[in-house]
Amino acid sequence: MQATFAATVFDEWRRAGLTDVVLAPGSRSTPLALAAAATGGLTLHVRLDERSAAFFAVGRALASARPVAVVVTSGTAAAELHAAVAEADLARVPLVVVTADRPPELRGVGAPQTILQSHLYGPMVRLFEEPGIARAEAAATWRPLAARLYAAARGGRGEPGPVHLNAAFVEPLVAVPGELPAARTEPDGSTREAPPATGLEVAGRAVLCVVGLGVSAETVARARAADWAVVGDATVASTLAHSDVVLRDDALAAWLGPEVVVRLGGAPASKALATRLASWGAPVVALDGEGPVADPDGVVTRRLAGRPEPTDPAHRGDPRYVARWAAASDAVESYLAERPDDVLDEPAVARAVVTAANEAGADLVVGSSMPVRDVEWWAPPRRIRVFANRGANGIDGVVSTALGVAAGSRAVALVGDLTYLHDVSGLVSGLGPVGGSLVLVVADNRGGGIFSFLAQRAFLAPERFETLFGTPHDHDLVAVARAFGASAIRVGDAATLAAEVAAGLAAGGLHVVVAAVPERDENVERHERLVEGACRAAGALR
Fold first, then answer.
1. Distances from the Cα of 483 to the Cα of 49, 53, 487, 514, angstroms
2. Residue range(s) of every CATH 3.40.50.970 domain in the chain
3. CA pair distance 92, 411, nearest whole angstrom
4. Chain CA centroid to CA 224, Å
5. Strand ranges (DSSP E) for 157-277?
6. Among 91, 92, 150, 422, which residue has the least CB neighbours within 10 Å?
7. Which residues contact 236 (CB under 8 A, 6 or more apart)?
8. Torsions phi, psi of 260, nearest 5?
9. Cβ(71)–Cβ(32) under 8 Å?
10. CA-CA distances (angstroms) from residue 362 to 110, 140, 538?
11. Cα separation of 356 and 358, whole Å?
């Protein structure tokens, strides 16, 4: 009976639109594994490590823009998914988490691979279901159960995000499913579209639109068509580049100050932008057409429903203000473009990677800490899809997320050396049988580079700082990649880096390119010099 239950659930999810299932091997989850493998139309990705499996599923969900199921066995296997569930919750990634469990009589009596799995992820999930041992008399409830979970993951109960099915199974675990309950209704494939915002009056004013995680290319296009200057997070394409750089200069920040700020989506990484939003004193309007608007600094003065509408005269801003921002952005870009190709530091790596992804039309995955900031600060505008684990902003699972994005497709990823080592288990399974192309670029500064920008660096003695925050390592990152069967190379200039990214994408498979960048204190100094030069270039416009 439980084989029929599992087969019914996956059949209903397939009908609703599920295409990808990520599975970590285990015994208690056997009915689920057999059902997923036998359901036509599903692509099965098998990962050895549950944490990697969950972040791989996050990557697949980001790339496909539809729910992805991740299936694991009982016990700590279920706990391994927790970080990815947290990311999916905060980033609104549709994830169907399926954990196998022991039956109630085996809980609390010392049975192996048994922990408390009921409501394991707490309020992070949009819906939790625990149907108990499959019974024939409950067969009519199985399809509605699966439909509720899938709909909740898509956002039927509010925002998209993770859902959790905790399914208990008893021995024997191997069986042939019987006839499935009939499918009585058509799955709900409707999508919601936010209406134009009402009550937004910005006609003829200088509007700065600040966008973050979750904002679509269509919404950015609408904002730009409404004559708003659009800046924001590294994950959002087609925004004005280098806003963080120019806003570090007081005179430029005053020159670029807006009359109205419109916020959409998550919060950009830029502290300079956050500081100016607080100091400018302009009203800040949050539009929720792309989901909840992040406001960690409490600067939002008004919240409205809807999205920008360029055909509404009340939404049209001042094009002269947009031209001012564009001129400043272009001046910085011209300054940065003059740097020689034999220079390879972290800003140069970000520029080379984004340029290569733009030219190849490949998706880009950006790691947390310095990579997402360097892309936001120094890279040219993105013309491709950009993904990052910016919900919880952690470094865990980024390699696996990138593999999930690239599976069956093409992607470039930029991560730091600690992020790479933190998720090195993602390399074990690679792209899997579905293939694809991923070029994983690792900026190797032998430690946690972002901490050298923070107060800890000046406050602590060098040895104590290195122990607690710099965390240097002596690993050969090329050898690590090759040990898992990936091709790998170390490069020392931007031109070679760009060539290796292009070659890796063309060849297919997993390629690791380790960029040898300057040590961490020198990296800080280079950032400071670049900011000074870029601001001089943009300041000449005033």
1. 17, 20, 9, 15
2. 2-168, 339-539
3. 21
4. 24
5. 162-168, 207-211, 229-232, 260-264
6. 422
7. 211, 212, 213, 215, 220, 265, 382, 386
8. -140, 140
9. yes
10. 50, 45, 31
11. 5
Residue 274 gets the label, from left (phi > 0), alpha (psi -120 to 50) or beta, of: alpha
Please give the helix or strand (H or E) that residue 306 lies within, else none: none
Token pair in block for residue 122: 């707490």
Architecture of domain 2-168: 3-Layer(aba) Sandwich (3.40)
**Residue 184 in this model has a pLDDT that exceeds 80:** no
Query: Sorting pLDDT into bands at 50, 70 and 90, what band is 340?
Result: confident
210: β partners: 231, 263
Q: Whole-angstrom Cα distance, residue 541 to residue 246? A: 12
Q: What strand order describes the sheet that includes 207-211?
A: 229-232, 207-211, 260-264, 284-287, 302-304
Q: Cα torsion at 86, 91, 94, 98 (round to 10°)?
A: -10
Please, how many CA atoms are within 13 Å of residue 280, restricted to the half-sphere of its CB? 26
**Residue 192 burial by Cβ neighbours in a 10 Å radius (0-12, 13-18, 19+):** exposed
CA distance 169 to 37: 18
The identity of residue 338, as a single letter, is E
Report the percent of the chain where pLDDT is more than 90: 82
pLDDT for the residue 164: 98
The pLDDT tens digits for 56-85 are 999 999 999 999 999 999 999 999 999 999
Residue with tokens 């899938």: 150
Asked if 458 and 432 touch (Cβ cutoff 8 Å), the reply is no
Residue 182 is classified by DSSP as P
Q: In 3D, which of 361, 360, 366 has the Cα closest to residue 346?
A: 366
Q: How many residues does the chain have?
A: 542
**Strand pairing partners for 208?**
229, 261
Q: Which three-class secondary structure state does DSSP give residue 146? A: helix
Superfamily of domain 339-539: Thiamin diphosphate (ThDP)-binding fold, Pyr/PP domains (3.40.50.970)
At 316, list the tokens: 């049209």
Distant-in-sequence, close-in-space partners of 24: CB < 8 Å, separation ≥ 6: 46, 47, 48, 49, 50, 53, 70, 71, 72, 73, 77
8 Å CB contact between 79 and 423: no
Tell me the pLDDT tens digit for each residue of 369-417.
899 999 999 999 999 999 999 999 889 999 999 999 999 999 999 999 9
Helix (H) or strand (E) holding 362: none
Rounded to an integer, what distance in angstroms lies between the CA atom of residue 144 and that of residue 268? 39
* 122/124 Cα distance (integer angstroms): 6
CATH of 207-331, one of 3.40.50.720, 3.40.50.1220, 3.40.50.2300, 3.30.70.660: 3.40.50.1220
Q: Given 3-state DSSP classes, what are the helix, strand and coil percentages for the chain, each rounded to the nearest 5? A: 45, 15, 40
